[in-house]
Amino acid sequence: SQQGEEDPQALSIQEGENATMNCSYKTSINNLQWYRQNSGRGLVHLILIRSNEREKHSGRLRVTLDTSKKSSSLLITASRAADTASYFCATDALAGGTSYGKLTFGQGTILTVHP
Amino acid sequence: NAGVTQTPKFRVLKTGQSMTLLCAQDMNHEYMYWYRQDPGMGLRLIHYSVGEGTTAKGEVPDGYNVSRLKKQNFLLGLESAAPSQTSVYFCASSYSITGENTEAFFGQGTRLTVV
């Protein structure tokens, strides 16, 4: 079963614009992570936000977490053509014990940034 | 620093054949994972390991076996390949499941086609 659902499935913007992707999940979590995947490549970790945090920044990335709504958003500011990729949210679920870092992924958002 | 290395990168199997995918990490990570990625479904956890000599089932373990004889290696075996196992397989590792270093590092993937 898919823990995370991402919205939108695809996003097309112009260079310099901001990109916002949303993620919803179903169960309580230890943390939520965002990953990036370039076409045909492995996933690269972008940012992690813990369940007791509400907002986190890393460079041009801003992540928010609302545990009451079981949702998160990833904002990429001043996007560049090089940001074109698929973006996935992944949750480390709180399941009555140690999750051992097992991640449950959403289906991803395909971001295209036009030069 | 190679990180997480998967071999092979591509493979075509006939139905009923067997094969082993190798994952090697040089970061001295305790935790290792095998995921499969299918179109439109994100990544799903097949098996994972919390240390040398240990393995456990993930979300979609049927048809796969794993072994972790050495800390740096995590092998995924397909005993009798089926077309439903056509997918891209990713190995990942993480240093910790608590604290700061909980993000997963991914290999570049193995694209497997079963005909």
Secondary structure topology:
The complex is a heterodimer of chains A (115) and B (115).
Chain A: E1 5-7, E2 10-14, E3 19-24, E4 29-37, E5 43-50, E6 55-58, E7 61-66, E8 71-76, E9 85-93, E10 103-105, E11 109-114
Parallel strand pairs in A: 2-11
Antiparallel strand pairs in A: 1-3, 3-8, 4-5, 4-9, 6-7, 7-8, 9-10, 9-11
Chain B: E1 4-7, E2 10-13, E3 19-25, E4 31-37, E5 43-49, E6 56-57, E7 64-67, E8 73-78, E9 87-94, E10 105-106, E11 110-114
Parallel strand pairs in B: 2-11
Antiparallel strand pairs in B: 1-3, 3-8, 4-5, 4-9, 5-6, 7-8, 9-10, 9-11
* Helix coverage percent of chain A: under 10%
Q: How many alpha or pi helices of chain B?
A: 0
User: Which structural class matches the secondary elements of chain B?
Assistant: mainly beta
Low-confidence stretches of chain B: none
The count of β-strands of chain A is 11
Distance between the termini of chain A: 37 Å
Oligomer: heterodimer
Strand content of chain A: over 45%
Helix content range of chain B: under 10%
What Rg of chain B do the Cα atoms give?
A: 13 Å
Q: List SSEs of chain A in N-to-C order.
A: EEEEEEEEEEE
Q: Indicate the overall shape of chain B.
A: globular
Report the biggest beta sheet of chain B as strand number plus sense, adding barrel if it closes: 7 strands, mixed
Please trace the helix and strand order of chain B, writing H or E for each element.
Answer: EEEEEEEEEEE
Shape of chain A: globular
Rg of chain A over CA atoms, rounded to whole Å, is: 14 Å
Number of separate helices of chain A: 0
Summarize the largest interface: chains and residue counts: A-B, 27 and 28 residues
Which features would summarize this protein structure in a list?
heterodimer; A: 115 residues; mainly beta; 0% helix; B: 115 residues; seven-stranded mixed beta sheet; four-stranded antiparallel beta sheet; globular
What does this 3D model show about the protein?
The complex is a heterodimer of chains A (115) and B (115). By secondary structure, chain A is an all-beta fold. Helix content of chain A is 0%, strand content 57%. In chain A, the strands form two sheets. In chain A, strands 2, 4, 5, 9, 10 and 11 form a six-stranded mixed beta sheet that branches. Chain A has a five-stranded antiparallel beta sheet with strand order 1-3-8-7-6, with no helix packed on it. In chain A, β4 (29-37) and β5 (43-50) form a beta hairpin. In chain B, β4 and β5 (43-49) form a beta hairpin. The model of chain B has no long low-confidence stretch (mean pLDDT 93).
